[in-house]
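User: These chains co-purify. Model them together.
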Amino acid sequence: EVQLVQSGAEVKKPGESLEISCKGSRSTFSTYWIGWVRQVPGKGLDWMGIIYPGDSDTKYSPSFQGHVTISADKSINTAYLQWKSLKTSDTAIYYCARRIFRHAFDIWGQGTLVTVSS
Amino acid sequence: EIVLTQSPATLSLSPGERATLSCRASQSVSTYLAWYQQKPGQAPRLLIYDASHRAPGIPARFSGSGSGTDFSLIISSLEPEDFAMYFCQQGSDWPPNTFGQGTRLEIK
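Assistant: Joint model of the two components:
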């Protein structure tokens, strides 16, 4: 079964750094783009950015450019979402997902809840 | 950036009824439009891609239509498990591949 497995929930303080991960299969990471989506609890879905692990080509939404970094290590079939300095407004659930035809996301990770509070 | 507007915000129907959800794009997205279902505490699930193609394992009661700027997701006869949030997403102009704000389908 194709799946994406994300790292566990995190509780951080404002200004701290954080990296969360998303692990999949070799076939997924050698063939597909992997995207990241934010969801503030009770709210909608925000497309953050996407990476092609094969060559690390990365695209960001202007809304997130400069605040997060998306990376991947294809040798271990893992994508990452990183913050250097968290804000309370970063509190949300973050999903990774596999992109397919016409840019839809067909496989989603289980989500990682990030809570940023002083 | 393309804006997707979903309507209605909330749709109240009974099991067995037909549901029609709308998604309108601020500019043409051709057929680069996907629909997702999300239940509380779960990740979104892809229902429809390329405007009208059902994802694997999705029941036939779910159908999608439209092209350009106007799209619909139709659930022909609602089952109890269909009451959830529904989001559309465009794949035409990126980054970003924006999502609509969602429609809540609730039991009447």
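Residues 30 and 42 of chain B are 29 Å apart (CA to CA).
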